[in-house]
Design a protein that fits this description.
Elements (H helix, E strand, L loop, with lengths): L1 H12 L4 E8 L13 E7 L6 E8 L2 E9 H10 L3 H9 L1 E5 L3 H11 L2 H27 L3 H22 L8 H8 L1 H12 L4 H23 L1 H8 L5 E2 H5 L11 H10 L3 E7 L6 E7 L6
Parallel strand pairs: 2-4
Antiparallel strand pairs: 1-2, 1-5, 3-4, 6-8, 7-8
Helix pairs in contact: 5-6, 5-9, 5-12, 6-7, 6-8, 6-9, 7-8, 8-9
Length: 293
């Protein structure tokens, strides 16, 4: 198949801004990893006019999708797990062209999974988990059991991805297949929620307790990215300062629920600052005693 696509990718390989080209073929009839195309041609470039360009092809009753992605956008996808297919294409794709070992180095970086990237990913998934879990709990308490069930399923997905990252792996599209091998306890939670013969409300009630425990034991390590950032200065932080901080932008939308949870668990302290109003205070935040990086 690579031979048939050679005229397409050779043109790209000859361009000075092309950093690498990978190819990934479909291995089974239904293939979420390749979007059910027979082959993915993944081209990484720099200084692209269009950050992400996609073109579809047909040949000899086969299908192919060509993705041309700017390296900055790809790095964002890697750092935030916002497009997991692309990460899998880099990890599992075969290199058919690279400039100055660019793709080989990128594959090695993904394999080793640097701690800084891992901490950011954990914070992103943890923030999503806290919000989803809180919503599920609130819906359940207000009698909306089916909606609570739906949010609990989402919560388990975030917990699963968090557990995978903790073990030093990148979450894949087939995340439950990964979890079954890496963290069977969380896989069991998912089975119990989905397959149990208990009533919906009983399943959600039991899972609320299990997920609360799973979140609690991970809180400090999962929030490490935020706690380290807050600890970088002695002054207290306003929520507004944290929300617009460039290092937090990937989980800024879920930051409020994350902060509230960390306050509840004693990992973040509230410091009240006077305002011009009587008995009205600015609510500021600082890290409670924290053992370091």
């Amino acid at each position: 198949m690579e031979d048939l696509l050679r005229p397409i990718y050779q043109e790209r390989a000859s361009q000075a801004n092309t950093l690498g080209i990978l190819i990934l073929e479909k291995k089974k009839p239904v293939s979420p990893v390749t979007d059910n195309f027979d082959v993915i041609l993944f081209i990484i470039v720099k200084n692209a006019k269009e950050p992400w360009y996609v073109k579809h092809y047909e040949f000899e009753e086969k299908t192919a999708a060509m993705h041309i992605v700017d390296e900055e956008l790809l790095q964002q996808w890697i750092d935030t797990s916002s497009y997991r297919r692309a990460v899998e294409w880099v990890i599992n794709g075969s290199i058919i062209f690279e400039r100055n070992d660019y793709v080989s180095d990128l594959k090695e970086k993904l394999r080793t999974f640097p701690a800084s990237t891992r901490d950011l990913k954990k914070a992103i998934e943890f923030a999503k988990l806290i919000r989803s879990y809180s919503e599920s709990k609130d819906l359940f308490e207000n009698g909306h059991h089916l909606d609570a069930f739906s949010r609990m399923v989402n919560s388990l997905h975030y917990l699963a991805r968090l557990a995978i990252i903790e073990k030093g792996f990148h979450p894949e599209v087939t995340v439950w297949n990964q979890v079954k091998k890496i963290e069977p306890e969380i896989y069991k939670y998912y089975e119990e929620l989905i397959m149990s013969k208990e009533s919906t409300d009983k399943r959600v009630q039991l899972m609320t307790l299990a997920v609360e425990h799973a979140i609690s034991i991970r809180a400090r390590t999962s929030a490490k990215h935020l706690l380290n950032l807050m600890n970088d200065r002695q002054e207290t932080w306003s929520f507004g300062e944290l929300k617009v901080h460039p290092e937090i932008k990937e989980y800024a939308l879920d930051l409020s629920s994350m902060i509230e949870y960390l306050v509840e668990k004693g990992l973040v302290e509230i410091v009240r600052h006077d305002t011009k109003g009587i008995n009205i205070y600015h609510r500021m935040y600082k890290v409670a005693f924290y053992g370091g990086k």
